[in-house]
Amino acid sequence: MFEKSTWIRLPRNVVVGHGVRSAVVDVVDDLHLQGRPLFVTSPTPREVAADPIAADFEAAGIEPKIVTVEKATFDAVERVIEVAEAEGAAYLVGIGGGKAIDIAKMASYHLEMGFLSVPTAASHDGIVSNRGSVPDGDSRHSVAAEPPLAVVADTATLADAPWELTTAGCADIISNYTAVMDWRLAKRLKDVEYSEYAAALSEMTAEILVDNAELIRPGLEESAWVVTKALMSSGVAMSIAGSSRPASGAEHLFSHQLDRLAPGAALHGHQVGVGSVMTAYLHGGDRGIWRDIRNALSSIDAPTTAAELGIDDETVVEALTTCHEIRDRYTILGDGMNERAARDVAKKTGVID
Ligand SMILES: NC(=O)C1=CN([C@@H]2O[C@H](COP(=O)(O)OP(=O)(O)OC[C@H]3O[C@@H](n4cnc5c(N)ncnc54)[C@H](O)[C@@H]3O)[C@@H](O)[C@H]2O)C=CC1
Ligand SMILES: O=C(CO)COP(=O)(O)O
Ligand SMILES: [Zn+2]
Hints:
It is an enzyme of class 1 (oxidoreductase). The chain is α/β, with parallel strands linked by helices. The chain folds into 2 domains: 13-160, Rossmann fold; 163-349, Up-down Bundle (Dehydroquinate synthase-like, alpha domain). Helices cover 52% and strands 12% of the residues. The chain is built from 15 helices and 8 strands. The chain has helices at 24-30, 43-59, 74-87, 98-111, 155-160, 163-174, 176-190, 196-211, 221-241, 250-261, 268-284, 290-299, 306-309, 313-322, 339-348, and strands at residues 13-17, 37-41, 65-68, 91-96, 114-119, 131-136, 139-144, 150-154. The strands form 2 sheets. A 6-stranded parallel beta sheet has the order 1-8-5-4-2-3, sandwiched between helices. A two-stranded antiparallel sheet has the order 6-7. A hairpin with a 2-residue loop joins strand 6 and strand 7. It binds 1,4-dihydronicotinamide adenine dinucleotide (NAI), 1,3-dihydroxyacetonephosphate and zinc ion (ZN). 1,4-dihydronicotinamide adenine dinucleotide binds at residues 42, 44-45, 48, 72, 96-100, 102, 120-121, 123-126, 129, 131-133, 157, 161-162, 165, 168, 172, 238, 244, 267-269.
C-alpha cells in the first residue's frame, strides 16, 4: 500500500519590485490579517525599512510594536516571543537580513502566528524558507520555522544595501552546487531522505544565477531582482525538501564552524562560497567543478580566499578538520579530514597560501 504523504508550505503572496516596501500594509489587508503586528528587525534595517513601514501602518490606523534584535540566538527568539505575548501581537513581520528574518520565523512558529518576510538585503536564501539556523554551543541547529505568508522584497532597498551583501547572497546560491552533491552522496551512502525535485530546483537556481552573472553589478537595481528571484527559488527548494539539505552541505558546516572560530569576520554567504570551492574539489578532484565555482564567485566579486574573507589560514584548516562535528549531516567530509588533507585541499584550491 502507498502510504507516503507530504505537506509543503509556501508563501501565498510574493511581491518583488521597485518601491514595493509601501505595499506591506496592502499585503496584510489581502491576507485578512487583523490586530497588532510585531516587527522584528535589527538596527540598520530598522532605519532603512522598519521605521518607514511602521509609518505606513500608522497612517492606516495600525500601531505596530517594534523589537530590535542583534544576534540569531535561541535567547533572541525567546525575547521576541515574550514581547509578542506581552504586547498582544497578532502576527510578526521580519524586516532585515538573514538573522532578523530567522528570529521572526522561529518565534512565529512557536507562537503559531502568521509571519511576513521583508528582506532588506539580498544576502541569504532564508527569505522564504521554512527553516531557521541557530548556533548553540558547539553545534548549529537547522530548526523548523514558520514559512512566510508573504514576502515583500523591495528591489530599491535591496540595491541600496552594501554591495557585499548582494555578493554574499549570490555565493549562498552558488554553494547549492556542492550542497546538492553532498545530499546525493548522503542518499547513496546513508539512504537519507531525498527529493529529486528539490535537488533539481536548487541546482537549476545556481545555474540560472551563474548564467546571468553579467547582470549582477553594483548599482544596478536589476541585480537585486535577479539575485532575489534566485534566493526565493532556493528557499522554495528547502521548503519542498522540508530541510535545508538542498542548500546546505559541507560548505555550510565549514561556514558555521568559522562563525564559532572567527565570529563576525565575514558574511555567511561569502564563507559558504569559499567552503564550496574546497568541497567541490573534495568531490571531483582536479577535474571537478571547483574552478567553475571559484570563477563564478570571482565574476560577481565574492571572496575566494581566506585572505579575502579576512580569516587566517590556520583558522581555515581548523574549521575544515572540525566542522563535520557541527551537526549530524553526512557530507563529503565523512567522519572528518585530517590536518594534512585539509591543508592540501585549501592550498590546491588557492584558498590559503
Ligand atoms: N533559515 C535559512 O534557511 C537560512 C538562514 N541563513 C542565516 O542568515 C544569516 C546570514 O544572513 P545575513 O543577511 O548575511 O546576516 P545578517 O542578518 O547579520 O545581516 C548582515 C548585516 O547586513 C545589515 N543589513 C541588512 N540590510 C541592510 C541594508 N539594507 N543596508 C545596510 N545594512 C543592512 C544587517 O544589519 C547586518 O549587519 C545567518 O545567520 C545564516 O545562518 C542563511 C541562509 C538560509
Ligand atoms: O544557510 C542555509 C542555506 O543557505 C541553511 O542553514 P543551515 O546550514 O543552518 O541549515
Ligand atoms: Zn546559506
